[in-house]
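Hi L.,

You mentioned the student needs an example of a multi-chain input paired with its predicted structure. This one should do, with 1032 residues in total across all chains.
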Amino acid sequence: MYTVGQIADHIDGYVVGNRSVKISSIGSIHSANSGQIAHLSNPQYRQYLASTNASAVILTESDQAQCPTVAVVVDHPYVAYAKTSQLFDKRPRVPIGVHETAFIDASANLGEDVRIGPFVTVGAESNIGDRVEIFDHASIGGGCSIGADTVLKSHVTLSHDIHVGDRCLLMEGCVIGSNGFGYASEGNQRNEPIAQLGGVRIGNDVDVGAKTTIDRGALEDTVIGNLVKMDDQVHIGHNCQIGDRTIICGCAGMAGSVTIGKDCMIGGGVGIAGDGPLELTDMVYVSAMTFVSRSIDKPGIYSGHTLHSSNSKWRRNAIRLNDLDALHKKVDRLERQIKELLAE
Amino acid sequence: MYTVGQIADHIDGYVVGNRSVKISSIGSIHSANSGQIAHLSNPQYRQYLASTNASAVILTESDQAQCPTVAVVVDHPYVAYAKTSQLFDKRPRVPIGVHETAFIDASANLGEDVRIGPFVTVGAESNIGDRVEIFDHASIGGGCSIGADTVLKSHVTLSHDIHVGDRCLLMEGCVIGSNGFGYASEGNQRNEPIAQLGGVRIGNDVDVGAKTTIDRGALEDTVIGNLVKMDDQVHIGHNCQIGDRTIICGCAGMAGSVTIGKDCMIGGGVGIAGDGPLELTDMVYVSAMTFVSRSIDKPGIYSGHTLHSSNSKWRRNAIRLNDLDALHKKVDRLERQIKELLAE
Amino acid sequence: MYTVGQIADHIDGYVVGNRSVKISSIGSIHSANSGQIAHLSNPQYRQYLASTNASAVILTESDQAQCPTVAVVVDHPYVAYAKTSQLFDKRPRVPIGVHETAFIDASANLGEDVRIGPFVTVGAESNIGDRVEIFDHASIGGGCSIGADTVLKSHVTLSHDIHVGDRCLLMEGCVIGSNGFGYASEGNQRNEPIAQLGGVRIGNDVDVGAKTTIDRGALEDTVIGNLVKMDDQVHIGHNCQIGDRTIICGCAGMAGSVTIGKDCMIGGGVGIAGDGPLELTDMVYVSAMTFVSRSIDKPGIYSGHTLHSSNSKWRRNAIRLNDLDALHKKVDRLERQIKELLAE
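Structure written out for the whole complex:
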């Protein structure tokens, strides 16, 4: 429970109306009830403002005059809504201190006010920053560093020599620093493992989804930029480099040595892999379920998926697709014949 | 080792022949040996009945007369076979009681005859139902409830405020209740996390595969209906709703706010994601590796995958696919020219 | 730090030049510095040999004369490079012995010089081979066997009755032996689980990637051959059989009862699933993101993915694809009309 005034202070806004009104939860502008705070950022929802039942609305100065209830005026209402939602997050915290069942190597360094839960392991020479929160069963190998205020949820694994920045959130069961996939075959010698001698470096404010895997580099490190956000079950191969603020949706996977620029958006289920290293420039958006097999050097939206249809219709079209080149050649032949006919 | 009579009682069938015959394992009707029980449900296997070496066969009344050995007559032989197979499952059980290394919060409630293995954690205010079996290293956050007779295998993670019904089976390493993937970007403010304040509610008799992830909702809960069966490495985004009895095969993934009806079948590797919330009605079957980007409002089978061919052939066709619209336009032009020629 | 002589002995090569030169790390032939060892296996890099700054180069006899520095002559330089990289792997080892927090069933057998980390569980009647190394939080069920020199990284799960060969590497969080996905539906009886009574057998020198899942068989075992290498987030359904030396890249998934031959290469994100059991013969290469829905009986390269393009272009082509059969029929009609016109 917060007052509107407390919320406004948290999101750097000012209140038009009664700062003391109490807010117990968050609602949508068209369905919120008394005691809830809503926000107006999408213009399509402006029609609901006049009749909203919310006790307060977060909005921009230009919408304030139309607000029938307490207004919290900000520059960016959607971002302010996100920050407000964080206030209402009641997730349990690991208590400050080290749980008696955790196993911390004697040479590890723990910062101030760390929170370390049951059955956590921390390896030799690892540095755990101030206020870092580590949930039960997380495993941190040797030579790692974790920046201040970062949170590791249950069952997270950091292999050895992994460096994570400040304010990151590593979600349940993600694995950072498993071996990259590299084998040498030559003559009759097959699948000899190439040791993966690099590590992983993760910037600040990075989120890593549940069960996501980020492999360690072969010689150099795999690098994740600042403010990168990754959803669940993403796979990042060895020596990938992901630019700042790029978003990677669930189940996307990329092979080794893929470089992605800044401010990109990689859709769900996308695959990125080529014969050699690939590079996507800044501000590239790749639609869900697209396969990217060549580099992309111009910002823009790229797609390559197919559209579903009824099975009987699809079956005919899919078979035809495997004759498409022949169809092209046939049409070219018909075109020549028509040209001759027209010339007669 | 069971007698045919014991098996018949377990599957609500009646025996024609000697109830005392001993059965040590399960076989297929065409390859079973003495001491094995087989079943006949698929008509294509009826040809093997007369010559089967099985010591007993589960079948329907109409096939009983042709059975050369002891018959167990039931209405649904395939379901009866499934129930019989459960009798022969020799999987190790966690012993009744709480393992000495488990860490159970003092405010948690444990039902009768619970089985809790090594290194399990149970958070504050969580309720563990009667006869629930929790394997080693499972992590149950605060405020969760688990219904009677549910089994959690090793390394399962339930985040906080997760509700699981009765008789569910959560397989190794699945994660229920990780954060949904939601960020606000506006102006120069980028990727501000939206707190995920909802939980996850899972019905009765639900199976969740190994490494499957089901995200918690943003404001409302993510909801999984009764008798839903999910394979390994499935991903369910925040606020999805999955209808009763729907089956989701391995590696399928769906974005947030996807609603799937009852009795659907989602094939392996399928992706479901659109610009906004999507809805699939009841009894929709989606073929493996299909991308569904629009809602489906009629029951039926839907597909969208491509068919493999030799690489050299595929390369030509795939390139042509990216010229398909031009080909269409060319054919339209040729059609007009032919029309003119025919009109002359 | 090794001398060139020590490295040459490790990779069965001979030195031309000073065996005492000290090597501190590995570099690429075109960018290596003094103190580094490089290798020459790809002919495209031969141009860099004369001017390399590496202190030593691994190469074949035929390239030795052109080497400006110490040469290590071997038959297979790429494989020799892989073996050299292993020398420089400084990954932390679990100490010999059983960590005090590990929970080993009294009936389990431990070989000589095993290394068992914190919070590991080993179930009843399981056999752990000599020098096996098991990282923290790994879970080994009952009735398992693990061959000599195999390594299990953190959070690996072996369910019960799983057999793993010698010198395998099971990466973080993989799950071997979760239930296969099998349910019986008949009449109004829905989704009755079929018990998965088989196990999993894994050969020698097999690598399993992080978060990869290999399901146990229904009646028979799921079988992985020798020297098979699997990347992260691969899924292998029940009763699959994978031939020796086959490589499976990240995020590939296969349904139950898929048989893959020897020396195959399955690309990233590939899906393999059909109406019934599928079989791929030896030496089949499947390109990334291809869906294989029919058996393949000839060695070769197979593809089925689509190529990305700009979104506006793709949208037109993807819609046309769902009219492709109609286009074929139209072209056939035009062809007949032209034939008539030409016959006039």
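You could point out the following to them. Chain A is about 15% helix and 30% strand. The longest strand of chain A covers residues 189-193.

Best wishes,
N.
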